[in-house]
Amino acid sequence: MYMRNTLISALLAFTTACGGAGEGEAGGESAGAPAAAAGSDLTPFQLEHGIGPITAPVELGAIDPGMAARGESVFTEKCSACHKMAEKYVGPALGEVTTRRSPAFIMNMILNPQEMIERHPVVKQLVAETMSFMANQNVSPGDARAILEYLRTQATP
Question: Taking the model in full, what pTM does it have?
């Protein structure tokens, strides 16, 4: 019980400290690029595409079924404990995430969740709303791209 109360207290302190200005809508995520937060040190690219190792827009072609199958496997192993497609679970529902976020944003969130939580206004807002934050799953860039490809198959055409 002590450990649970300590964890809850730490999470509340973290979300209070990180709760920032961001855009929100039902379901906890906004469409499109966020408005620049006053005093933000993020570039326009970072505001739209996230903070992390992906520093250029990700160009997408037709969905690659083999890559999507690999992504589904990685998602099941590393992400499904917290994320469902059609409903908020521990984290936000991800079935339509590719319609709300750029491919680079999604990959940066997978690859660099800690800095995204600490610095990105949209992610700060999500943490404040959901009272949960994404742990680093040590996903490789190739696996992050495969997860993105799987998520593309989940969006309603």
Answer: 0.77
